Sequence to fold (510 residues):
Amino acid sequence: MQFTLIPFWHSLSWGGKTLLCIALGALIHLGLGFAFEFSIDEAHYALYAQYLAWSYFDHPPLVGWLQWPLVAIDAPVGILRIVPEALWILSCILVFQVTAELQRLLQTKVGGQGMGFPATGHSGFAAVLIILAAPLPHVLSVGLLPDSILTPLSLGLLWMGLRWLQPGRYFTLGDWLITGSLLGLAGLSKYTAAFTALALVLIALCSPRKPWLNRIGFYLAILIALILISPVLYWNWTNEWISFKYQIAHGSGGEWAFRRLAAFIGIQLLAFGLVFTVGMYYFLNRFWRTSPGIIISLLAFFWIPFGIFALLSGGGSLPHWTTPAWFCLAPFAGIGIASAWAANRRRLIAGLFFFQFALCLIGFGLVLSGGITSKNPKGNPIADLYGWDQAGQTALSLSKIHSVSGLAVQNWTLASRLAWYAKPLPVLVLDRRQDQFDFWFGGIKPGADAILVNWSAMPFELPIVGISSRPDGAFRECQSLDRIDIRHLGRQLSYFEFSLCKHWTPKDPS
Fold:
């Protein structure tokens, strides 16, 4: 019997097609996970698992707790990346299920099959395909960030919101317990989970009557959420609420500028794709007039966090912060895309998917190849993913040869990978800016010696007394020890320089 791919594809149900596409994406991510080293944030959160605590300076603890079993057995980087991969798979499955729940609600609320709904499975498949075609979610499927965890939790809360709105359905005790658990775990994953919780509150307030105020399940849900986030509250209470102060300052960024807002919108469209925009156009065009109140409340899982981050972007914000919001938008866009496909808008949709998948493949190729050749390492951001293991081992070896007990860097972004790959050596950041490394390793002491590591993509002058302009302090002397060139596929991507620096002398703060 002759086997061809096309008959096999057509023989699958929409659920089967969806699972096959998810499996293909997972295999690609698995290969990428073993191909390059930790990024800045990945190493930082892996160190959370290395140094377990109730919470941390910059984020709640769940991103570290999830990795702890694998970190405890010293699993390699590729194995550690199975955690974000599993979260991505779970998120995609939830997108499919939430799309089905959303379509059932719309069919009930706005006229049933008379509205010309596409097949439920077709809408779910389209929603997942939108996620697969979005470039940025692939990054979070390989590297574990707090947003990787918040994404499936946000989808779970959206699902509970849809169950809340189903006509004739009342929240059972089990529903309340699940909702409280999801809220608590979301709070343990990232502080911006408050935006998702606000969206759920908006749904609860939509109905004119509030019978849930008299339900014990409502109060149990609040209690469970508070118990789950209590480690974060306790840690911050014992540390003068430092995380909340940091997040407020970090989120507000610098001076607000309209050009940053415009850049944010442009980057978001590029990072998540125009298919979302087209899908939402067709969704709103078909369903908006029939039930705007329900649609606005459900879309709050997108527009509340996205709107807040858009406003904050005028002072500076990061593209991946909106990832949970876009995943919650995917079911709506998926229904829109499936409806447009059924209405023979296929050429536009196929062209957009082709363009976005091409972008994803180009991105995969750049990562695997080491990026675009550039004489200046700053011009090749992919260089950031290679060489840190070698640099860490070199620094560890030099510290033993010269009997130095710690490493030093001049910016906190250089610290996490060295702390991971040169463990258990402490990495001291030569500035007065407080960060998580101060909790782990403390600040550099007056008179201390260190192996100073400099990276060509973020170079600094040697911090020597009488020469350096650093406001924090300087060493009495620095002696060059070694330089290693980082090469990948025959091309030099960057280089590291190592110096033995002696007798740190802090400057008077006054």
Observations:
- The first helix runs from residue 5 to 11.
- DSSP finds 23 helices and five strands in the chain.
